[in-house]
Amino acid sequence: MTALTAMIAACGAEGGGGETPPTATGTATPAGVAPVSKSVSASNAKLAPAAGTDRFGQRQLDHPDDLQMLMLAYRLEGRQPPIAEWAAAQSRVVHANEFERSALLEAERQRLQGIYDSTADVGRLRLNVRARFGEYDATRGGYYLDAFMPGSVFNFNARPAPHPVVQERVDLQVDNSEEINFWPLDVAAAQDALQRTGGMRNVTLDSRFRITGISRRSGGAVLSARLLGYTIGSERYGRPVTLGVRQFDGSAQGEN
Description:
This protein is α/β, with parallel strands linked by helices. The chain is about 20% helix and about 35% strand.
């Protein structure tokens, strides 16, 4: 089984994050680094369609960073994260003077608690995955993407507390049984897609997942998830375009 590894950059001692969504690098071999995203609060996380018996909740967490994934894993496992301990270990708390330390400690505790609270009722995820497509397969009529093999795994490595160094890992494993890395296109559409990427064959897959289970292994928590689909996009010269759509949730498939 070929593993797809997405190393999401650690959120850092102070948390926070950047303004752009993290993008995982999908390749046939473990590789890739992604930037950190801004935390998604409980108030602005998007609602997913009702799933009836979905025991993992209805809300979708968009572009989570490492710390959000760690907090989500704690919640799904029914464990309470050691927020007070992590807050006390933050650099700005450890190095604060005696007049400021109490207020900074409380601010850190509230920040971490807010991230944990944002994972309530989450059962779906949205990630950007970088991928490349190979040469056109004329026999089947389409391209193969070097991401999303069945059994692909994304790794999130969170460092919630730097003093002492605490690092925890969460894996997200794709459990689709069907083929999810083939992009069917006729010749004309395939030529157009190649041209739109400037011949570089690089695309971004705006991907949606439904969490189906959680377990614990020696390396940490493992979330299993079904890939519901992805939008295939390219951004050349700063102009994003949509090249196609793949669906694996029972709805119609289509390509643009």
